[in-house]
Write the structure tokens for this entry.
Amino acid sequence: MDGFDQVYIADNTRMETPPGWFLQALHDYDADLVVLPSRMRPFAYVIARRLRNKRWDMAAVDSTTQPDTKMCMLHGLIPVCLMFKHGPTWSAEIILAKLRARDLWARGGPDKVANLLEEQEAAEKAKIQADIRADMWDRSGDAWRSYQARTGQRVSVPGPSRPGAAT
């Protein structure tokens, strides 16, 4: 990489610049990722992605009130998430793991993820309906046996018979 101006935009010079190896790890994961200091949250960084084929409409930029989103739009970026540096060290693996978990394209794209979510919801709904049906079946059986016992249609005494009783 020529310089880290491609991966880090020093919008706030009072914020610590991430180390080169950290920025290199982000660049190696996705060359379109950019890190900027947050304007809204102290000691936070915004991870954003470059727009590829279009620019933001200035009307959209002017109507945005959230400072970090507006900053990203002015730099031609889409905000992805916030990142906090905890303690004296930087950890690229934690950030990359969170980015991987959110990456729709790694799972086949937005349409495939939407279909997977719909399948999950349908399976959950079918399981709930099957559980309700099984519960209702058990309750109706118990109610039927209770009704028979209360009306004298069936009298059963479970357990072993008494010794000496006629069978």
User: Anything to note?
Assistant: The helical segments are 20-29, 58-63, 67-74, 92-102, 110-151.
